[in-house]
Automatic annotation (TrEMBL):
It comes from Lactonifactor longoviformis DSM 17459. The lineage of its organism: Bacteria, Bacillati, Bacillota, Clostridia, Eubacteriales. GO terms for molecular function: ATP binding; ATP hydrolysis activity; transmembrane transporter activity. This is Putative ABC transport system ATP-binding protein. One of its GO terms (cellular component) is plasma membrane. The keyword Lipid biosynthesis does not apply.
């Protein structure tokens, strides 16, 4: 086994007013192996996004440890963690967060330009290749106001992949899309995972979670259960049965 992320006894509290703190994650422990494709489900407010942001180093743990490969986030400065995020992790969100004053191509190239590891030519070539793989090469010069939600989400996937991350985090990446566009985004994420990138998604959508390999169920700030579905191989018949298994499991957990 090759562990990419190890979380032990994670506690996360937020300051909520004067001398008042809300505990959102209660003693969460989990391990993610390199190459896995996981999703996190659970009721609204159960702590899914907080878990994602804390394990990806976007936010600090209050107590407990988060290790990415052999790196202990608690021993690192904000700047050091930001460098790791930029060079080794990718992020996609429900809202694509693309910059309005840049066209689609320049939005995609931006993070690679910031990491300054390659020449502009190398960056452009990889950007084009990713756009081709995700079916949006023809949109390179478009302003982001002239593309659909699904196309913009493909662009944000390209942007997240520009620095060839080892792990991709998604907070409801299909949440703002219709079911056809959501299915297409999931197919792209499955290919990315097949090529070796570990993927961790937060989702409310059973159809999305059913295509992932392992589903974590969060409830009141703890991981209340997990379901191993195995790698999804792409057959429609097996997808139906995965969705049914997941629906029954979630219902048994009271969701
Ligand atoms: N920055 C913050 N400051 C204070 N409280 C916060 C902050 N972020 C989240 N919370 C609180 O933490 C709890 C968990 O929020 P979180 O967004 O992690 O839940 P979630 O399961 O992702 O919810 P949803 O499915 O609705 O997105 C909620 O009660 C929320 O109000």
């Amino acid at each position: 086994m090759n562990t990419i992320l190890e979380v032990k006894h994670l506690i996360k509290e937020y300051d909520v007013g004067k001398n008042s703190r809300q505990r959102v994650l209660h003693d969460v422990s989990m391990t993610i192996e390199r190459g896995e494709f996981l999703s996190v489900m659970g009721p609204s407010g159960s702590g899914k996004s907080t878990l994602l942001y804390t394990v990806s180093g976007m936010d600090r743990a209050t107590q407990g440890s988060v290790r990415f490969c052999d790196i202990d986030f608690s021993a690192m400065s904000e700047d050091e963690i930001a460098k790791i995020r930029l060079s080794r992790m990718g992020f996609i969100f429900q809202q694509n967060n693309l910059l309005k004053n840049l066209n689609i191509f320049d939005n995609i190239l931006l993070s690679a330009c910031l990491s300054k590891r390659e020449t502009k030519q190398e960056i452009k070539e990889r950007g084009k290749k990713l756009m081709e793989q995700t079916g949006i090469l023809q949109l390179a010069d478009r302003p982001i106001t002239q593309a659909s939600g699904g196309q913009l989400q493909r662009a944000s996937i390209c942007r997240a992949l520009m620095n060839q991350p080892e792990i991709l985090f998604g907070d409801e990446p299909t949440g703002a899309l219709n079911s056809k566009a959501a299915g297409e985004i999931m197919d792209i994420l499955l290919k990315i995972n097949e090529n070796g990138t570990t993927v961790l998604l937060v989702t409310h959508d059973i159809k999305v979670a059913a295509k992932t390999q392992r589903v974590l169920f969060m409830m009141d700030g703890v991981i209340a259960g997990e379901k191993h579905l195995g790698k999804y191989q792409g057959e429609a018949g097996s997808l139906k049965s995965r969705e049914q298994k997941l629906t029954k499991w979630l219902s048994d957990l009271g969701f």
